[in-house]
Design a protein that fits this description.
Helices cover about 40% and strands about 15% of the residues. By secondary structure, the protein is of the alpha/beta class.
């Protein structure tokens, strides 16, 4: 099968991008031809189809300028993406399109072209952008659902995007524009939700239930190599407000005898480092961005992993990566995390700062408990086998093609 695999980033920025590349490898391993469509960037992985990628746009620092105004039209509806996807379709003649994150940089302008060429569309929903202007159902360090019942103007009123009226206005207008034309609801054949929580949330907010299916992410099982544990606990992932690092750091401030290592990069890094320096916290170490075998070694040598997310996680690939290396996870009881971790069996939950502090102390002092539960968590990985995912995905593709 010739599969058009579409994501706005062609390099790994987070879990959604990692899944995008892992899916490409899985499909190619089964003999399919995977054709990527994305955005150009100096960070990109090499691709023979890069000539069809849309030009790069940086939305990280919104401000009033002619360049910003010129970019607005592309965010709403990109004529460039429409033109280039048409050329790619004519050359490769794909049989199905699998969409991931296309908001802003690519836009839903490509959906009509795919439909015009009778190409079924499947979309993996990696965040809440279909129902929330700022992607997260989270603003100013708390869960937020003010935009329910299409009250997207709340995004602007509350400066929900980058704490900026301009960025929030753009996202608000974008939501109203896309909802007015029903781009996603009209053109996408099937929405793949990585968790039941996500599916229930989209249903509650009005997306057509008949088009929603649940299919968790997958992960390739690792050989459990022996590694000498060291005396630290670990957070790894993107350093952004919704990840709850401010809470974790405030708790670690009360536990000076326990060392925390933080692996990752993100917009909160400077703020968090400044807080640590200002408050003379000496038991927290920032490792910077780590990946591959280096990251796996850091995970293996940790006592356990903490996932203190403040938002309602869509799934939690970090949990699977930890389980895969035999590590217990202590996580906030939010969103899709509740579907992966079984309390006391493969990991633990906390619901407030006091409980987090207590459980960090308890787990750190009980190495035998973390070892046994880590072994059980490792076995849990079999539920997320790539081949199981592949077989289910093929059924979804087939259903999409039949219903097209």
């Amino acid at each position: 099968m010739r599969i058009l695999n579409i994501n706005k980033f062609y390099h790994i920025q987070g879990g959604a991008d990692r899944h995008y590349f892992d899916l490409t490898k899985l499909l190619e391993r089964h003999g399919h031809k995977v054709i990527p469509f994305s955005m150009r960037s100096d960070k990109n992985e090499p691709s023979p189809h890069a000539q069809y990628f849309v030009n790069e746009v940086d939305l990280s620092r919104p401000k009033f300028s002619f360049k910003t105004l010129a970019t607005l039209g592309r965010i709403f509806y990109s004529l460039e993406a429409k033109r280039k996807i048409r050329a790619l379709i004519q050359k490769e003649k794909p049989e199905i399109a699998h969409i991931h994150n296309i908001y802003h940089q690519i836009s839903p302008s490509i959906l009509g072209i795919l439909k015009k060429h009778k190409i079924p569309i499947v979309m993996t929903v990696n965040d809440y952008k279909l129902i929330c202007p700022n992607y997260q159902l989270f603003q100013h360090n708390k869960v937020c659902e003010k935009c329910r019942k299409k009250k997207y103007y709340q995004c602007f009123l509350n400066k929900c995007v980058k704490d900026s009226y301009l960025a929030s206005l753009v996202n608000t207008l974008e939501m109203y524009f896309h909802k007015a034309f029903h781009f996603y609801e009209r053109y996408v054949n099937i929405f793949i939700c990585p968790s039941k929580f996500m599916r229930q949330k989209l249903t509650a907010w009005g997306l057509p239930q008949a088009k929603l299916v649940t299919l968790p992410y997958f992960i390739k099982e690792e050989n459990l190599l022996s590694a000498k544990e060291k005396n630290y606990i670990l957070f790894f992932g993107r350093l952004s407000p919704e990840k709850g690092l401010d809470l974790l750091i405030s708790v670690m401030q009360k536990l000076p005898e326990i060392k925390l290592k933080i692996a990752g990069e993100g917009p909160e890094k400077e703020k968090l480092e400044a807080y640590i320096q200002k408050n003379y916290i000496t038991n927290i170490q920032f490792l910077g961005y780590k990946q591959g075998d280096e990251l796996k070694k850091i995970i293996r040598q940790s006592r356990f992993v903490v996932v203190p997310s403040s938002w309602q996680e869509v799934f939690g690939l970090v949990v699977l990566e930890s389980f895969n290396l035999g590590k217990v996870v202590l996580a906030s009881k939010k969103g899709g995390l509740q579907e992966i971790i079984r309390e006391g069996s493969t990991g633990f939950f906390f619901q407030n700062a006091a409980e987090l502090e207590k459980k960090i102390q308890s787990l750190y002092q009980n190495r035998e408990v973390t070892r046994k539960i880590g072994q059980r968590a490792k076995r849990e990985i079999r539920r997320y086998n790539p081949e199981i995912y592949y077989q289910n995905l093929m059924k979804i593709y087939q259903f999409a093609r039949q219903g097209h």
